[in-house]
Amino acid sequence: MTMIKTLLLSLLVASVVACSHSYSVGNDFSEDKISQITEGQTTTSGLISLFGEPYSKVMISETHEKWLYFLASGQTKEQKSDALLEDMTTPAEPKHKMLSVLVSGDVVTSYGYVEGIL
């Protein structure tokens, strides 16, 4: 009987599985092209040519609109334990990059870029 208990315990321990899943939120864009933005000259059509459609556009005044290019990505490590019948998910070094562009009259007036680990 002790051998059966040991075997069952071994199977129970072996049933703990670790998996990883990738995720991303937003739209990827090339940060290498940011240097091609010129305040007072680059137009909204130029932005779309460089980066595609923004993740979001927000009117912040009657004359200014904020365009946001954003991507957050990473992996989660999912640990399943059949013994405990619960799932635990923890993020593994999520990364982000964000380009914020202020537009007035179809022309870029200012912009900023940040990236890093969340």
From TrEMBL:
This is Lipoprotein SmpA/OmlA domain-containing protein. It comes from Neiella holothuriorum. Keywords: Signal. Residues 1-18 form the signal peptide. PROSITE patterns: PROKAR_LIPOPROTEIN.
